[in-house]
Specification:
Elements: H1 2-39, H2 49-88, H3 91-97, H4 102-106, H5 108-137, H6 145-153, H7 158-183
């Protein structure tokens, strides 16, 4: 029973949010790349730094933060409305009379599903942001393909990816637990 509810929530959160996360991520990478290309134009800083900046900006800050802010609005309001509607229609009271632990049945699968799916959405967001930066700069000849790829490969710190997932887990727990609390 809990497993089926968790799978349903994972589908709602993950697949239901994939389009909006992808769309926002493309623009995150594209805007960052174009803006830094414009700012670094005519400077002594090498052009390949644009790929480096877009990669680190997406991994460290923008993908976890912006993705989870969007999901807080979309997924959080959906969870609060679903549980709040059940409270208003007295479904929760009926479940308690039947002996069901309503907080465990209604809240736990949502929190666990979000903590599984949202970090995956953040990873997809970081990847799509890097692709978005590539699509905004290389075909428009702001920088060359080699420079962008060189920037992506330069100065990589694996700890940044770890921190991205820590932020994603933290945000996913906070956005679902607060939304479920407010709805309950």
């Amino acid at each position: 029973m809990y497993w089926n509810e968790m799978m349903r929530q994972m589908n709602d959160i993950g697949i239901g949010s994939l389009v909006i996360v992808g769309l926002i991520s493309v623009f995150i990478g594209a805007v960052a790349a174009v803006q830094f290309a414009y700012q670094l134009n005519g400077q002594l800083i090498p052009r390949y730094y644009i790929g480096y900046i877009v990669r680190d900006l997406a991994i460290i800050e923008l993908s976890p933060t912006i993705t989870c802010l969007v999901l807080a609005g979309k997924v959080g309001s959906n969870m609060a409305a679903e549980i709040g509607g059940m409270r208003q229609k007295e479904h929760i009271d009926a479940m308690e009379i039947m002996g069901v632990n309503t907080s465990a049945f209604l809240v736990l699968p949502k929190v666990l599903a979000a903590m599984c799916v949202i970090p995956l959405l953040v990873a997809i967001s970081a990847f799509v942001s890097i692709i978005g930066g590539y699509l905004a700069t290389v075909p428009t000849d702001l920088i060359s393909n080699g420079d962008y790829v060189r920037g992506l490969r330069s100065f990589f710190v694996p700890y940044n990816v770890f921190m991205m997932f820590v932020k994603a887990f933290t945000y996913s727990f906070l956005l679902t637990s607060i939304s479920c609390y407010q709805g309950y």
